[in-house]
Design goal:
With 227 residues, this protein is an alpha+beta fold. It has eight helices and eleven strands. β4 and β5 (64-71) form a beta hairpin. It starts with a helix and ends in a 5-residue tail after the last helix.
């Protein structure tokens, strides 16, 4: 079994025997920051499994890019085109990115022939939908500090192994991109991050973040009401 099959099986939690059938048929790709994985209206050619790094998906609204999602290790990109012949969003590498592309024909075979793969993929897609709903609720009702807390906790859970680790992690995104994702201005994002750092809840150094008081951020996140 080649590295692409092995890594895909590991990050998705799929039986290695299933992915062994795909030996030599998956594409391992590397992108520098700013590299485009796929673009608006491009023909659907497969899904992308994130092995390492951070990517974002964007839509064009009034000719301006709106960040619709952020993907890290084990996330799946390209699922927005499963219902149509073309991609709806653009996927862009935020940090150096390694992905495995599962071509359409291989994807179809896996979905038909492997219960393990179907379960793993549906689980990832379901989690992505739930995360999108959480963000919608947040944007509808939450204050700016709650949005920032939500964002930091989400990333820390994925990149810094949760509250016990207290490891610094690279959020990858600029303040502008964070604001676009959370519906905030650049100034508000910078101000709220500075305020959290001054309270000692987080340590901020450029795009490196370390959460020092996880429970405090959870309390802030829970205060969602605008009133």
């Amino acid at each position: 079994m080649d590295a692409s099959c092995r890594d895909t099986a590991e990050v998705l939690g799929v039986d290695a025997c299933v992915m062994r059938r795909c030996h030599g048929r998956l594409d391992r790709l590397h992108f520098a920051p700013g590299g485009i994985l796929y673009d608006f209206d491009e023909d659907f050619h497969g899904i992308y499994v994130v092995i390492d790094g951070i990517a974002k998906t964007v839509l064009l609204v009034n000719e301006a890019e709106v960040v619709t999602g952020i993907a890290t290790r084990s996330d799946v990109l390209g699922s927005d085109a499963l219902h149509s012949p073309t991609f709806v969003t653009r996927a862009v590498a935020v940090t150096p990115l390694t992905v495995v592309r599962v071509p359409v024909n291989v994807l179809s075979e896996l979905l038909r022939g492997s219960r393990s793969f179907r379960t793993a993929l549906y689980s990832r897609l379901g989690a992505a939908i739930a995360e999108s709903l959480d963000l919608i609720k947040l944007l509808a009702r939450a204050r700016s500090e709650a949005r920032i807390a939500f964002f930091l906790l989400k990333f820390a859970s994925k990149l810094a192994e949760g509250p016990a680790a207290k490891r610094a992690f690279n959020i990858g995104l600029s303040r502008e991109e964070i604001g676009c994702y959370l519906g905030l201005t650049v100034e508000t994002v910078s101000r709220k991050l500075t305020a959290l750092a001054e309270t000692g809840y987080v340590k901020v150094s450029g795009r490196q973040i370390r959460i020092d008081n996880w429970k405090a951020l959870e309390r802030i996140r829970s205060k969602r009401s605008l009133h």
